[in-house]
Specification:
The complex is a heterodimer of chains A (about 270) and B (about 280). Helices cover about 50% and strands about 5% of the residues of chain A. Chain A is globular, with a radius of gyration of 19 Å. In chain B, a hairpin with a 2-residue loop joins strand 4 and strand 5. By secondary structure, chain B is an alpha/beta fold. Chain B starts with a strand and ends with a helix. In chain B, the strands form three sheets. Chain B has a six-stranded mixed β-sheet with strand order 5-4-3-2-1-14, with helices on one face. Chain B has a six-stranded mixed β-sheet with strand order 6-7-8-9-12-13, with helices on one face. A two-stranded antiparallel ribbon of chain B has the order 10-11. Chain B is built from seven helices and 14 strands. Chain B is globular. The longest helix of chain B has 17 residues. The chains are: A alpha/beta (about 270), B alpha/beta (about 280).
Chain lengths: ~270, ~280
């Protein structure tokens, strides 16, 4: 699971640069939370596109995440990338004043989609492509909001586990206070991924690596010394979130169907 | 003899559930005094398996589902589809013919569709041959889905003396047909009619129904007599169960007036094939 930071940096900056240029974009835009993943994305984008072409949108809900906002601003300044702070509470509150709920998850998902909606709006205004900040761990567990934080045009970190992103962050010089922060989906204040999942990211990633990369069976992973409940929980997370990793399924009717046998490359004619 | 065609919808990746479904239909077929029941391609596992292939793979020489089906085959012959792990880590899309408590024959799909919407070549190893085998009723030969769209495969079974050709299939419908059906269904019926007619054999085509990942399996299973006459036809798209009487003596009767089998010259065909293959190198 060990990564070579320089190699990953080289591969991902090349990918970001080429992919944007194929689609005639100079600029990249993404949600900057003050957490690990978006900070790493900011670094890579700054290296690939030059800092002036990188926009981090900081989208807090009121003043619920004020420490993170400060961290995000400070790090953006250090990198020399552009930022913009947009408070999403007026939009989210307007909706919930009509349809009140006490369900934290509903609200958290709504916030994630509000941020997505703003990102895509600014993507058009700024002619900047939306970069995703979801890592492999989150994507496999389905620990993200569909059409929310999972939405993006390209997702540079999608094949790096959370702990690998942390390693990459060290290589890229992301400040310790960001690296050491408890990971949070930011669905509500004080939420931490690990508390909610009930397993540490180190353990999750080791189990995922065995299951996915090494194609080990459930039994093999358990026999190699992992907790049975943890392994089963992780497998059920993976299975139950398959829909988040795929486009909506289209029933095949015609001779040529999107998603079935209409199979041009993503970089078609680019 | 009596033939049952079970046009079922298997549950993707769920051996236990599908096995129980098989039991239900076998029971029903036995009640109807049937000699042979035919299930669709990959009937024990579902079709769009992709990375699930290894999870549902079976080594038939040592598997309790197969053992139970073998026991049932003392009273009724059974054809079904499954993922076969013949050697460690090597998976085939296979069809088994069980009879008299034993596996009479296993056919491993030779033509694995890997184009457009199909990805079988990514997940399955290729079968190596087509072969006829004796059954309690007639000499039989099996093909799986895309095998049947290569008429050379049917010829091999014809040359091998097949009297009963069994095709099991998981064919998704495609193309908006003008007659209120999937356009692709004609392809199977055309082949079924032609092969039964020119091989002077009975021909069973058992397709599945249900949907998987947006594929809508078209059903429409059928049974042709040895002169291309449609004896039975299952519903399109919906689950169906057919029981059809056939008279194997029709083969004798029809072969008296149509001498394709008597006049076949496999050695000339083989010689010509060898020359054709050789000429590839020119």
């Amino acid at each position: 699971m060990k990564i070579n930071g320089l190699f990953i940096e080289t591969a991902l900056t090349k990918f970001i640069k080429e992919e944007l240029s194929k689609f005639n974009f100079k600029k990249g835009i993404f949600g900057l939370s003050g957490g690990l993943d978006s900070s790493v994305c900011a670094c890579l984008a700054a290296k690939a596109l030059m800092p002036k072409n990188v926009i981090g949108l900081i989208m807090p809900y009121g003043n619920l995440f004020s420490v993170d906002v400060e961290d995000a601003q400070e790090f953006a300044k250090e990198l020399g990338i552009q930022t913009r702070i947009i408070d999403i509470s007026p939009m989210v509150d307007a909706f919930y004043s009509r349809f009140p709920t006490e369900e934290k998850l509903l609200k958290g998902n709504k916030m994630a989609r509000e941020r997505m909606s703003i990102l895509y709006d600014f993507s058009a205004r700024e002619k900047a492509l939306v970069l995703g900040t979801s890592n492999k761990t989150e994507l496999l567990l389905g620990y993200g909001t569909i059409h929310g934080d999972i939405a993006s045009a390209i997702n540079p970190l999608g094949d790096l586990y959370k702990t690998q992103v942390r390693e990459l962050a060290i290589h890229l010089g992301v400040p310790e206070k960001i690296r050491k922060k408890k990971a949070s989906a930011g669905l509500w204040p004080g939420q931490t991924d690990e508390e909610e999942l009930g397993i540490s990211y180190e353990t999750i990633d080791q189990i995922l690596f065995k299951l996915i990369d090494e194609r080990q069976s459930k039994e093999e992973v358990i026999n190699s010394g992992f907790n049975k409940d943890d392994v089963e929980k992780i497998i059920s997370y993976i299975k139950n979130s398959q829909f988040k990793r795929r486009l909506p399924v289209i029933p095949k009717l015609s001779e040529r169907t999107i998603g079935h046998d209409f199979l041009y490359p993503y970089d078609w004619d680019r | 003899m009596k033939i049952a065609i079970a046009q079922i919808s298997s549950v993707l990746g769920d051996l236990k559930n599908n096995f129980e479904l098989h039991l239900e239909y076998i029971k029903q077929a036995k009640k109807g005094g049937t000699d042979l029941i035919v299930f669709p391609e990959l009937s024990l596992t579902g079709y769009t398996l992709k990375d699930l292939v290894e999870n549902v793979a079976i080594n038939p020489s040592n598997n309790h589902y197969i053992n139970e089906l073998k026991l049932l085959s003392r009273d009724i012959s059974i054809v079904f589809g499954f993922v076969e792990e013949k050697e460690r880590g090597i998976f085939y899309n296979s069809a088994a013919f069980l009879s008299k408590g034993e596996i009479s024959h296993i056919h491993r799909k030779v033509f694995l569709p890997t184009y457009g919407m199909f990805e079988e070549g990514k997940f399955f190893a290729q079968g190596k041959y087509f072969k006829t085998f004796p059954t309690p009723f007639a000499k039989a030969g099996m093909m799986i889905c895309y095998d049947f769209l290569n008429y050379g495969a049917s010829y091999v079974l014809f040359a091998g003396g097949a009297e009963l050709i069994i095709v099991i299939s998981a064919a998704p419908g495609r193309g908006n047909g003008k007659d209120g059906r999937f356009a692709s269904q004609r392809m199977w019926e055309l082949m079924g009619e032609a092969i039964s007619y020119f091989s002077t054999t009975f021909l069973i085509y058992c397709n599945r129904v249900g949907t998987e990942d947006g594929k809508i399996f078209a059903g429409g299973s059928f049974l042709f007599n040895p002169e291309g006459k449609l004896l039975a036809k299952a519903k399109d798209i919906h689950t169906d169960f057919l029981i059809q009487d056939i008279d194997l003596h029709d083969i004798n009767r029809i072969r008296k007036k149509r001498c394709y089998k008597r006049d076949d010259k496999p050695e000339i065909i083989l010689h010509a094939l060898n020359r054709a293959i050789k000429s590839y190198e020119d």
